Amino acid sequence: MHITQSFIDGRSVRSADTFENIDPATGTALGLVARGGADEVEGAVAAARAAQPGWAATPPERRADLLESMSAVVLKHRDELARLECEDTGKPLTQAYADVDVAARYFRYYGRGIESYYGRTIPLGDGMHVYTRREPFGVTGHVVAWNYPLQLMSRAVATSLATGNAAVVKPADETPRTAVRVAELLIEAGFPAGVLNVVTGLGGEAGAALSAHPDVDHLGFVGSTAVGSLIAHAAADRVVPTVLELGGKSANVVFADADVDAAVPFLVKSILQNAGQTCSAGSRLLVHEDVRDEVLSKVAGEFRKVSIGPGIDDPALGPLVSTKQLGRVRGFVDSLDRGTVVTGGRTPDDLAGGAFYAPTLIDGVDPQSEIAREEVFGPVVVSMSFADDDEAVALANGTDYALLAAAWTTNLSRAHRMAREFSAGQVFVNTYGAGGGVELPFGGFKKSGYGREKGIEAFDAYTQTKTVVMKL
């Protein structure tokens, strides 16, 4: 049986123990994964520390060329990477191909951007020359979630390497293979060994060791708010900066004047993409009472048409990532104390053995209930109605999360008011981007985390400012 191993200093590294990589569509093993721990993390950080000074001294033009070369290599291996991502996560093959394309774009985008990323000069008066430099932190550590493993790793690694850092990545237990493959492909693209290292293993072992390692200068994490808090504590203990992208309970807010037919495809896709396992999924549907019946009827109708099956068959909806996650989703729905399941709320009868759950729409939930406030992370959307703009804002902002929100309205003044009043790191109007494109700074307010990835703003997160003051 194939073993997915850690990749450290340009080579595969075995671990004493392994664990099974489970196919969420069938419940059977795809292979074994090396169970790395503190020893492997020590080797990976040492390799990154040794490689980083030379990499930082590499001219930006050369780094840019290598990043663009990596983009081409990723696309060259598009079929292979998409299949690995599809099998590991369960997501439909079309979505896995999209993830490969976005990963390639991250390397190309940050390769093109790094050559024009400079410090500033500051006028301080005659006889003084003052300027700033943007310098890398050194070694960056990244603990990556299982929902978009290829995308999440690529956006963090491309930014870190572009700015002259070296990186160590700990992929999620459930989805390790594309992370290891990307590290291997970087060598094929011409990067020096050691600038990117991947340690496979369990979060409580390899992830904890990486976040606590004294030679890691910067931490990035994507995942649950509970684990993000642990990462933040580990960073605080060593006084190193952290970028956290955590949970979400994002709202689609449909006003009475909305173009409902234009909105419905987005309302559906925003919760069904990746089986709802997206931090910025549109998991709350807030609808003005005048259009409530129309919107719910049309969304439920689209849900009932959705094809469900193994990701490799490329249906509209694949399985959840694991039976553990399936149990979490079931638990939320089965414990519902107020509200009506309009459609779904069950496991499809003909897909026993996999982690499948039908598209689910629940209407009339209590805004203070757990299912209305906490992240389900499955194809489940809860609906509530409102009577006026103030009530819409109160509902939209009524959770501890604040990652993304969308307003559906044809009133331009209302659109601008909602963009101002919604508490969220991204606000969409008459569209929904589930995190938006590569160019758009992404991150949350409140318990959705802090720091920004994506866009040129991400360069700021992976560099530190040095101010130079010179008397002439």
From TrEMBL:
Question: InterPro entries given for it?
Answer: Ald_DH/histidinol_DH, Ald_DH_C, Ald_DH_CS_CYS, Ald_DH_CS_GLU, Ald_DH_N, Aldehyde_DH_dom
Q: Give the matching CDD domains.
A: ALDH_AAS00426 (cd07109)
Q: Which Pfam families match?
A: Aldedh
Which keywords are on file for this protein? Oxidoreductase
**Coiled-coil regions in this chain?**
none
Quote the catalytic residue positions: 245
Q: Looking at the keywords, is Oxidoreductase present?
A: yes
- Give the enzyme's EC designation: 1.2.1.3, 1.2.1.8
Q: Which family does it belong to?
A: Belongs to the aldehyde dehydrogenase family.
Name the UniProt record assigns to this protein? Aldehyde dehydrogenase (NAD+)/betaine-aldehyde dehydrogenase
Native source species:
Spelaeicoccus albus
